[in-house]
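Bug report

Summary: structure tokens for Transport permease protein differ between web form and batch submission.
Environment: batch mode, default settings.
Steps: 1) Submit the sequence below via batch. 2) Compare with the web form result.

Sequence submitted:
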Amino acid sequence: MSPSMSWATTIRVLGQLRRDPRSIALILVLPAALLSAIYFLFENERLAPGAPRSFDRIGLIMLAIFPFVVMFLVTSITMLRERTSGTLERLMTTPIHKADLIIGYALAFSLMAILQTLVATLIAYWWFGLNIIGPPGFVILVAVLNAVLGVALGLFCSAFARTEFQAVQFMPLVVIPQLLLCGLFVARDQMNDVLQAAARVMPLSYSVEALGEVASHQQITGTLQLDLVVLAAIVVAMLILASLTLRRKS
């Protein structure tokens, strides 16, 4: 492995993104726009005095879910283009290590994910007045980790698609089940045993649980620490699996 090779890959991918304004808009603007739609959806909500807003709960969770979905989609399609265009195959004929490629791609998209998360979080707090107990830094940490998770899953799933349409088809297979079982609609402890078992192996469940801890505690709790460790471990595992999908060409 070579840090210079990884960084060179990162610069190349960022340069490609810079020449693709639609992808930049999708990454930076779409999560904030969707969050705005969530806010205005509950704008006229009637609340009892002192009752929390629905946006404070749902908007907080969406700060993690929207970046996850967008980064999964952008990363999987971009990586697929690298494979189908022959760029990845040509790179694999060079001495560059497979880990350098994966780290380079992951770092490039993770940098975009950080910008995406910062934009959405700033809008949520300073425009829509998101009100939770935990500090914004914890929210940003969970949201960024969730966006990087979308990057890692996108890199891995792109290996199993042959066209961009097939890459999009992974959305209902990988993303939608997690949205249904993460605890957004029904608390996990209210699900039946089969669904609870399925939710335990889905990364978004830990993201939602972590944000629940942030919403109700000012300090880092043991549950929050465990959720962050699990999410980080899944990210590393997905990146390792993604590197195994690369084949050295002669």
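Above is the batch result. After comparison, the two runs are identical; trailing whitespace caused the diff. Residues 54-84 form the longest helix (31 residues). The radius of gyration is 19 Å.
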